[in-house]
Predict the structure of Ribulose-phosphate 3-epimerase.
Amino acid sequence: MPIRPIRIAPSILSADFSRLGDEVRAIDAGGADYIHVDVMDGHFVPNISFGAVVMKAIRAVTTKPFDVHLMISPADAYLADFAAGGADIITIHAEAGPHLHRSLQAIRALGKKAGVALNPATPVSAIQHVIDDVDLVLVMSVNPGFGGQSFIPEALNKLRQAKALIGARPIDLEVDGGVTAANARAIADAGANVLVAGSSIFAGNDASTYAGRIAAIREAATGRVA
Ligand SMILES: O=C(CO)[C@H](O)[C@H](O)COP(=O)(O)O
Ligand SMILES: [Fe+2]
């Protein structure tokens, strides 16, 4: 069994943006533990999503922690805006800038939890030097930039390696990309305790389905029916 409690973090990248506030309320009511906020700059990844202004607007509709995944480079100039706008966890990519340690320190200095993300092509050794400076490690299980992609199975090995690096430290291990109820058990067994899921929760954008889908991922990951 995973040591840390399983957390389900629906990614609002797959929400209906024309009804974003209602979509966030629906996943909150449906049992989301975190709200996963994907920020893309069209430079670090080949897509543009939204920024701190949009995130701040939905801060008013839920008290659930905002798990902000910054796919932007460089990130430093924007950290204060996301902190002020209501982020709880701010995750930057290990590949996004030359001074990872400095950026992580800046996030903690803003009073927020600091996360570091690894692209599929980036080895776990890239974050060895900052492991005592993070609260969360995010293993990408797709190439970042788009929702709805398929889970890359090699991510399970990456999770096991990240888990070994984390050891007994109180650091969350998050997986992001292609997570479904069908692969959640293997993901949890590999050591992840925070599961991001976008398209597998928001498909069809029918709020009446969200609670069941969140529960199905949680039950698969924990091996328990809620
Ligand atoms: O960071 C991301 C993409 O870069 C998203 O969080 C991720 O893709 C979630 O969407 P899905 O569950 O549909 O794969
Ligand atoms: Fe993400």
